[in-house]
Amino acid sequence: MRTLIARVKNRILPFLLVFGLSAMGCAVTAHASSWWKSEWTLRKKIVLDATGVGVALTEPVTSVPVLIRLFDGNFQFASAQPDGSDLRFVAEDGKTVLPYHIEKFDPLLNEAFVWVKVPELKSSAPTVIWMYYANASGKAGKGEDAKGTYDEATALVYHFSEHGQPAYDATTNGNNAQNAGTASDGAMIGTGLRVDGKTTVTIPTSPGLFWSEGGAMTWSAWVKFGSPQPQAVFFSRRNGAKYFLIGSDNGTPFVAVTYQGAGIRSGVGAAVAPNSWHHLAVVASGEKVSLLLDGEAYSSVQAPLPALDGPTVLGGDGVGGLMTTEGSGFNGEMDELQISKVARSAGAIKVAAIGQGREGTAKFLTFGEDEHETSWLSAFKTGYIGVIVGSLTVDGWVVIAILAVMSVISWFVMVRKAAYLNRIGKGNVNFLNEWSHISADLSALENTENNDAKNVGGRLGAKEHRAMVNTPLYRIYHLGIVEIQHRLSAGQNAADKVLSARSMQAIRATLDGGLVRETHRLNNQMVLLTIAISGGPFLGLLGTVVGVMITFAAVAAAGEVNVNAIAPGIAAALLATVAGLGVAIPALFGYNYLLTRIKVVSTDMHVFIDEFVSKLAEFYSEPGE
């Protein structure tokens, strides 16, 4: 039975340990591949479907800034940071972090507008991104990258969310407005710009806004058309006799340019309904300037984009006589103005028109259910232990680091000492089995010409012999045979081979000396366990006392008592005591177990010495004694 138990312990238990660690590693690996970072405890799947309803792209669209509208129906505002700083967006691969920036985040109204740069919208399959929030540590820091949300071809982006300040350019170009216009709350996307025909907003000239003759350009904005007005212009750019105008003529959007000294206006389409928001885009490429309404082609001008490098005006008082009919100031609202230095594809404009609209969530963008991070690491970070660890002060970390070193040393000593005692236990069994045979006739101990004495009869194999010679019993036995061979001559007759009482005492003294040395070897490094047992709790107590002192000193400095401020500090201080006990308790159990094993080996040595000396006295005594 003992052999069976030893086999289970030595073979099956290591296998189970390795199997368990491997399974744990596989679980952690699988989890890591599906969840971006465990500090974020909530995520939501966002599906961008440009394959069918409302969009139906014919080719992929790359580097698309997509508007994510958040409200209490699709987002838990209470779980996120008050400013949305713990928001993160990750691509479908679970690794690539997507640039984004927040236009508005209001946890009181439960409303947010976030712009995310999606690398590619496919025409063949929906695109998936992940939105992560609810950072457990509360120290995520802002991850916004407004300038990275747009590509290099984007020259200007106005969200009009400045509330009384000049419009700020969200791109890297710095094309900020020269003056503030009239803000309009409740626009298409948050706050917009009210255009009343009187107040204008000027965009200063800059190299990034220079237009060359016949060059490429894309202009887009959300426009709310008011009551029908003749020749009402809301975007104008002029250089002398050259101009570029976008406006509305009795509810019909138009674009007008100068070409070869004459003004040309786009054709007439169906009038839009008053007091309604529409996405308007103008794309210039080569010899054509096209106007798109809500992502669909509306009208065009067969003329190239004129060369213009002057300032731009939003709003105004009409076309100023440049058209055949005097116009009036446009009365309406504008939101999300974007100007690019390239001709955007029809698919990109369709995505903006559908995705940025209030109905875009239903047609183009859908949210999945919230998924929770449930790994053991997350539980550690978000539970009580995470709060306690996060409240540790420097002195607490120092004490715990010292205790960690002590723990490693004590475990190293226990494992190494247990393995050593296992080896000598097996070797002692082999030795005692052989000794029981050779003790019947000790004449073999006298022979110095062969190795029978050293091999204890020479019946063991090489492996068993190596295990035997490294045991305390064999080393004591070897001291004994050296003493016998030193005192007995091989040439003596058997009758003359007698050991006197004084010789027997000398041999016993030598064996007792070996016993002392072997006992010292067995107890080597055991003092480290006693240090861990006695010193660990005191070090932990020291860390606790210092931590409590610092906590109360901080409360005194603050001048007010707040249990929410005191409790984490005291809990963290008590963690040092727990760490000290965590060092001492295993060391105490290990020390007592090893001490019992050492006593067994010491007892075997005492018994063997008594038996060895008794056998010598019996075998080498004078006849008649």
- Quick one: biggest sheet? 8 strands, antiparallel
Shape: elongated
Beta strands, count: 21
Q: What is the terminal-to-terminal distance?
A: 45 Å
- Can you tell me the residue ranges where pLDDT is under 50 for at least 5 consecutive residues? 1-33, 318-326
Q: Oligomeric form of this entry? A: single chain
Average the pLDDT over all residues and give the rounded result: 82
CATH domain fold name of the domain at 154-341: Jelly Rolls
Describe the 3D structure.
By secondary structure, the chain is an alpha+beta fold. Among the domains are: about 110 residues, Immunoglobulin-like (Sandwich), CATH 2.60.40; about 190 residues, Jelly Rolls, CATH 2.60.120.200; about 100 residues, no CATH class. Helices cover about 40% and strands about 25% of the residues. It is built from eleven helices and 21 strands. The strands form four sheets. Strands 7, 8, 9, 11, 16, 17, 18 and 20 form an eight-stranded antiparallel sheet that branches. Strand 17 and strand 18 form a beta hairpin. Helix 5 packs across helix 11, helix 6 runs parallel beside helix 11 and helix 10 packs antiparallel against helix 11. The protein is elongated and about 145 Å long. The two termini are about 45 Å apart. The relative contact order is 0.09. The N terminus is likely disordered.
Write the layout of secondary structure elements.
Elements: H1 2-34, E1 40-48, E2 61-71, E3 88-91, E4 100-106, E5 111-121, E6 127-135, E7 154-158, E8 182-187, E9 190-195, E10 201-203, E11 217-225, E12 232-239, E13 242-249, E14 252-259, E15 262-265, E16 276-285, E17 288-293, E18 296-301, E19 312-314, E20 332-340, H2 346-355, H3 360-363, E21 365-372, H4 376-382, H5 384-390, H6 394-438, H7 462-469, H8 472-487, H9 501-522, H10 526-558, H11 563-619
Antiparallel strand pairs: 1-6, 1-21, 2-5, 3-6, 4-5, 7-20, 8-9, 9-20, 10-19, 11-16, 11-20, 12-13, 12-19, 13-14, 14-15, 16-17, 17-18
Helix pairs in contact: 4-5, 5-11, 6-7, 6-10, 6-11, 8-9, 8-11, 9-11, 10-11
